[in-house]
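>> received
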Amino acid sequence: MAERTVAVFEENATILHAFTMALAASNVQPPSRHHRDRKYQQMVEESAPHLSPEVAGQAAAIICHLHSSLTWATLRQRFGLSAEATAGALTWALQALIRDLTLRNEE
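>> returned
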């Protein structure tokens, strides 16, 4: 699930890490991030119409964060995970979230 994204991040690791840290340090949010966030929000709303707007927004926020260069950099740098372990951890987290959202529909 996250393997392709992590592979792209790894291919551009040096520049992406510097860019990610610079954006975080200066609290800059590029327009492309807002566009991506809206796409994830729309995807959650369409895939899980049973969720309240509040829960859908929370789910979309977590998905955006998990699927980000900042999370990749944190797992790689702070926790020392390999690229493979990072992809595995992100895939597990995303699958757990999706499973929970699916179960909320069945209750």
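>> DSSP finds six helices and no strands in the chain.
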